[in-house]
Amino acid sequence: xxxxxxxxxxxxxxxxxxxxxxxxxxxxxxxxxxxxxxxxxxxxxxxxxxxxxxxxxxxxxxxxxxxxxxxxxxxxxxxxxxxxxxxxxxxxxxxxxxxxxxxxxxxxxxxxxxxxxxxxxxxxxxxxxxxxxxxxxxxxxxxxxxxxxxxxxxxxxxxxxxxxxxxxxxxxxxxxxxxxxxxxxxxxxxxxxxxxxxxxxxxxxxxxxxxxxxxxxxxxxxxxxxxxxxxxxxxxxxxxxxxxxxxxxxxxxxxxxxxxxxxxxxxxx
Length: 269
Prior knowledge:
Layout: E1 4-6, H1 27-30, E2 33-35, E3 37-41, H2 45-51, H3 56-77, E4 81-88, H4 96-120, E5 123-127, H5 135-148, E6 155-162, H6 164-180, H7 191-195, E7 208-211, E8 230-233, H8 243-255
């Protein structure tokens, strides 16, 4: 399968160290093909908290902790790229106290993530328009990206103040500016050139998209990049999403027939 690796080569019990097969997985799971790049829409934090009689911000805090667990599980499974939707361009429309709490959580997460990345050899990259974020958050993002740029473990992308339409518009503006300044000719523009202007440049397109909490939409997430991605939707809220739930998604991914618009030999159209 394009962009994937066999799981038996990468399961292990030492994240960031020597990886060995995980004996807790069944043989049929060990033989599965693992997607190279998984994107996740982290949905359901607020509903999860409400179901427990807790405020929405408690759900966001627990969801943030779960991101770290899934990063480790994903890497052990052989996933090379993990991209999560942390804060969208539309999330600014939420109540101000919730936005403020999310920004506080983001600040704290950046500190924790720096330590986790150093320990686990993770490479961190933030996608989205960071110019709207406060200066201290932008500084921490720059510090995190610089400190982890040479790490060789999981490539972890965090979408912050990200919206796919916004990303495409920003890319088009830069592309138009380069054409105006004669750095590029319009007839030189193809998919490869355009992708170089996106936030996700040099990152392979996702093989698998997971959305938690039962919603069945993309919510302005990676619209260009998801053109041939397999989708998996689950009713499980993000704070309850575990390694076992991730494996269920990968099992479904293995059941898909990825044709990229073509057909198999000797098969009728």
